[in-house]
Design goal:
Elements: H1 4-7, E1 60-62, E2 65-78, E3 91-104, E4 110-122, E5 130-143, E6 147-159, H2 169-172, E7 176-190, E8 193-206, E9 209-210, E10 216-217, E11 224-238, E12 241-254, E13 267-280, E14 284-297, E15 305-319, E16 322-334, E17 342-357, E18 360-373, E19 379-392, E20 397-409, E21 419-431
Signal peptide: 1-24
Keywords: Signal
Protein name: Outer membrane beta-barrel protein
Length: 432
Amino acid sequence: MNLSRFALAAAALGSSLSATPVFAQAESTLLEPAIPAGFDRGRNTSVTDRARPDYDPVGIPVGGFNLFPRLDVGVGVTDNVFFNPAEKMTDGFTTIAPRVQLNSDWNRNTLQFRGGANLERYFNETRRNQNAWDLGALGRYELGSSMAVTAEAQLARLYETPFSGAISSDIAVLSNYLRNYLSLRGQYQAGQSRLTLAVDHTGFDFSGITLASGAKLSQEDRDRTIDRIVGQAEYAFSPAMALYGQLSYGQIDYSRNLLNGQPNRDSDAWRLIGGATFDLTSLIRGQLGIGYVWRNFDSPIYRNVSGLSVEGRVEYFPTELATITLQVSRLIEDSSIGANSAFFNNQVSAQVDYEVLTNFILTGLGQYARQDFIDSPVSADIYRLGIQGRYLSSRRVNLRGGITYVKRSSGDIALGSDTNELRGLLTLTIQR
């Protein structure tokens, strides 16, 4: 789950593969991109990003800021609440997600604050209840016309996806952790060139897991801090095309040895990648990069890992009413399963957004991931399909609903039982 923090660094993949709320099973332990993706040049706009003046919230003016309050209330059902293939149990649940964001309304510089929660309550299996929350602040200060500095801080209680590959899928569904994140990013632009340097620090504090027997499973040996530094250079050959090169270094330090007394997976990681960002005519925009990643463990009991690293996100606009998004990535991530030190996480996805009406959007998603464990002959395959509809009733009210199907198979019980889930969710949003 964690070298991806370095593999994702910088020109990362933009939005998550499951960014649409109905598709999100739980939060991933991936870090925020160190340098956000930069392929948006204002020439093309996707269906989901397009401004809809009659339906977009306008916020509440508060001095030099705009306040955007929001409340999501939903009801859903799952046919496999604990992702147990031998004893599948259907259960219903409700979600309540209050959120508020405060954005500055200044001509120069930016200041943002946000906070929210996502509370899930299951009708029968209360061990699956979730109390996720997050707080964040971001400030951007311009130093003249060519330089800018951005600082960001986050604190959140998050829940793992059972398909992450970080721990056995049989218990991952009950895992949650506290994450803190601090970053500082500087950018200098002159003519057609742009240089970016970013540093950040992230801490993870995992809670224990309460098993069905009532016993408590400690996750203290998963607690860690991650520090990284990323540099990126870009050169724009035209308004539509730029090349970039990126070098990142990261250090993972676990707070203690494994529970069995063995050394933990402290390590250093390097990643070198190069590619292009583009926004061509009215049909296509995106980013494609390819490079190499190295992961060197402090303890000799773990084999050092290196290999191909890939990142890509391409949006295709066949018409103004449709956007097709293709994403691909190959990352190294940490594993806490048995003697495995890490695994290559290979993902490819396709998403289609179609504007049936100005206020009605249909979204379909297909995703495939293969997790190849470094010190194991087996691998895990994950398939995800989903469809969602979003209806914008007014500026203040919208409704969305959809279903997703996820399947995971590995052939090795140590990685977790082969399992699947069918989930449906209907959500009402009230906002200003």
